[in-house]
Design brief:
The chain has ten helices and six strands. By secondary structure, it is an alpha+beta fold.
Length: about 325
């Protein structure tokens, strides 16, 4: 059976009532734009990583069919038995918006649309939803359009924006996890009996702490000294009198970061800048990571045995104190 009818060759099309109108009629422009939107949503379904997002988008595609069918009719109210958009569908969109936006950090400026394919497609669909809204407003100037349709299409563009933000967030977080894992594995080797047996001795912990305090006293900078083992577990924290209260938070984070990333904290600074491989690392780990100087990974014979964090002075002073302490025992700051 042929799909062509030749009835539209003159530039007209038929509404559900059978009436023929121009293909540029505001009613046709409105439901034609919804048809574009629906096609774009199918690409979003294919690209989205989140199963809940895919399910939601498929339900929205069905709702767009109901929406288009209503616009293709001259009736101001949906016919009996016809599916139509109601406040229930709007509520579902609002719930989806709140859920998606609750997973991402708030923004205070405009953003470039999409850092992953799913988010890019969702942003494109969002612009089509906005165009459909403009076409609907134009149509409403000539014929009665149910207000719930105006509310729905407005909320839909907000929902697509929220889903795009969430997909971007998830994709970027997965990228960071892969990059951290790659760096961690690249700088180490498989656990062995030798590795599990190597750790900082009590005497070394004492010497590290004492040497750090002595250097801090020479510089007249009260600091907090924190030492963690190879698993990031805190083993020693010493606070000098008059050290800043915030240093009690920062020193352990520096030591933990150095072990978690297997590198000195000051070497992470470039990697977390916009566009770099670990951009967003601090926010994704909720501030647990520190990317300025004062934290050092401690190695012996190619094995990570702990981390040292110093906080209380300037970045340069913290690094100076840490390096003086490390020089007092038989460890290295690189593998």
């Amino acid at each position: 059976m042929a799909i062509y009818t030749r009835t539209g060759d003159a530039g007209t099309t038929a509404l559900f009532t059978g009436q023929r109108v121009s293909k540029t009629h505001p009613r046709v422009e409105a439901y034609g734009t919804l048809d574009e939107l629906n096609a774009a949503l199918s690409l979003c379904v294919c690209a989205c990583a989140c199963a809940q997002h895919r399910t939601l988008l498929e339900s929205i595609q069905l709702q767009i069919f109901w929406f288009s069918a209503e616009l293709a009719s001259e009736s101001e109210q949906p016919a009996s038995g016809q599916r139509y958009i109601s406040s229930e569908e709007i509520t579902a969109l609002e719930i989806a918006i709140d859920t998606a936006m609750g997973r991402v950090a708030p923004l205070h400026s405009f953003i470039l649309p999409g850092r992953c394919e799913a988010a890019s497609r969702l942003h494109f669909a969002r612009t089509l939803a906005r165009r459909a809204e403009r076409r609907l407003v134009e149509l409403s100037e000539d014929v009665a359009v149910r207000h719930v349709l105006m509310r729905y299409i407005n909320r839909l563009s907000d929902c697509l924006y929220a889903l795009a933000r969430a997909e971007d967030h998830d994709a970027h977080q997965n990228t960071i996890i892969r990059e951290v894992t790659k760096r961690y594995l690249a700088s180490g080797h498989s656990p062995s009996m030798k590795e599990s047996a190597m750790s900082l001795s009590f005497q070394e912990l004492h010497q590290l702490t004492r040497s750090a305090v002595e250097r801090a006293q020479e510089l007249q900078v009260p600091v907090v000294v924190s030492i963690v083992d190879a698993h990031g577990v805190e083993t020693v924290t010493w606070r000098m009198p008059d050290a800043l209260l915030v240093s009690s938070e920062l020193a352990p984070k520096k030591a933990w970061t150095a072990v978690a990333m297997k590198t000195a904290t000051h070497e992470l600074s470039a990697a977390v800048q916009p566009g770099a491989a670990l951009y967003g690392l601090e926010s994704h780990l909720q501030g647990k990571v520190v990317t300025f100087g004062g934290g050092y990974a401690l190695w012996r014979d190619g094995v990570l045995i702990g981390g040292l964090g110093i906080s209380g002075g300037s970045v340069e002073q913290d690094m100076d104190i840490a390096q003086a302490a490390i020089a007092a025992i038989n460890v290295r700051t690189h593998q």
